[in-house]
Amino acid sequence: MESTAEGLQPRTFSVKLWPPSESTRLMLVERMTKNLSAECIFSRKYGILSKEEAHENAKRIEEVCFASAEEHFKKEPDGDGSSAVQLYAKETSKLMLEVLKKGPRTTEEPEAPVVDTPLEPADTVFDISGGKRAFIEAEEAKELLSPLTKPGNSYKRICFSNRSFGIGAANVAGPILESIKSQLTEVDISDFVAGRPEDEALDVMRIFSKALAGSVLSYLNISDNALGEKGVRAFTELLKSQGDLEELYVMNDGISEEAAKALSELIPSTEKLKVLHFHNNMTGDEGAMPIAEMVKRSPNLESFRCSATRIGSDGGVALAEALGTCTRLKKLDIRDNLFGVEAGVALSKTLPKLGGLVELYLSDLNLENEGTIAIVNVLKQSAPQLEVLEMAGNEITAKAAKAVAECLTAMQSLKKLTLAENELKDDGAVTIAKSLQEGHPDLKELDVSTNLFQRSGARCFAQAVTNKPGFVLLNINSNFISNKGVDEVKEILKGGKNSLEVLGPLDENDPEGDPEDGEDEEDGEDADDEEKDGDDNGDGGLGSKLQGLKVEEED
Predict the structure, then answer these.
(1) 383-384-385 Cα angle (round to 5)
(2) How confident is the model over 153-185, as pLDDT tens digits?
(3) Segment (H or E) for 487
(4) Residues 300, 423: Cα–Cα separation, whole Å
(5) Which of 88, 394, 483, 497 has its CA 20 to 30 A from that of 161?
(6) What percent of the residues of the chain are helix, what percent strand, and what percent coil, each to the nearest 5?
(7) pTM, to two decimals
(8) Listed residue (363, 356, 541) closest to 464, CA to CA
């Protein structure tokens, strides 16, 4: 290297960290998309986002955070931009967490602020939920909550989730919250007493309740606090003062019959409520009754989730009837309960009143054929605009396949269909697959795993999705598809508009197995007969396309 000429001063270089290059911003969007659509602790709790929805959220988050950081940078133009970069990263993480906690949404459903509404500027959100779950005591609380004590702060939304408050920390937080409660609109105190003894946890809840009483909230999340009746009543002052709630989350809270009664009794009005989520509680039939009363008083409800709550037939009937008042409902999630046929039939009588449904989750309700047929016969008339339909684990057999297929034919806006863990076999699989072959341009995911079908059903489902633009996932795992059948499925997918990447894993497929009862599908000849019967009946389409495929016996 040549030496510096004598008398010349060495050059100094200034490294600017802001703004990031366009390629860096695009890389961040892709990284966020991957993280938002990956399985994690939040996706297991709140549901996993599709790649399409994750990308939409990632793009919106990046744009909002870039704008916020850019504004910050303009105030310190002589700096190197490091503080802008820190703000950019910090706010991105916060908003990603919000999206994950909200779970998957449709564009019609205005539950997730990042997707559907303009985001508040960064300084209106105070969130300490990031990082590992940790206990908080008095001294740490003073430091952690100090931004809330600054005069003139404009915080409207606070999230204390994932931090466990003891009595000392609660006594610090109480006066601070009371001083700003008039400006608060959204409060998330989910999972904020984890690991505390019951008496201490109840005292902490009472302190927070008293501090926040009188605030006019539109959003309240008290999930993951093992409330039970005692916990609900510990929030008496807060709940009694909330007549303007639009979103209420009481998930994984041990909501028993008495707790449900207390909740229904304490909240003075749910008339403005748009989102009500009760997922994963011990409600049972008796607890379903007061919840049903709350639902009746919530005519503006758009999203109702009461999944995994141990509700049986009587409670299911009560809920089904109560939902008749919620004519603006867009998302209904009541999966993983013990409804049975009677509650399924009751629900079918309510569905015609819910003409705006976009997502419907009815998996694991013991509907059987009778309940399933009653529901799908109504849906084909009342909800042709449905985008998500899940009916897994309902003992649906080929006897109900014709009714299901007719319903699906009417649903041309479907994006996701789940019929896993039923008993369709080849006969039912072929019937349903044919209903999906024509149209359905927006279909992205199809899950028909664990349905006792063989080569014929597998090929039909592959034919049904192979030319759909934007299709993402075909799950035919845990069936009895021969090795040659698997090869044929792959060839069908390779020959269409979609690549082989849309085929999900087949690690639990049993190529040597037979359907459990073995009565009418022991060998491939029966599958041939089914296809021929379909052609003789003028079904054309799939049947004619399969004629050239040789079907061998399945052992």
Answers:
(1) 90
(2) 999 999 999 999 999 999 999 999 999 999 999
(3) helix 483-495
(4) 37
(5) 88
(6) 50, 10, 45
(7) 0.73
(8) 541
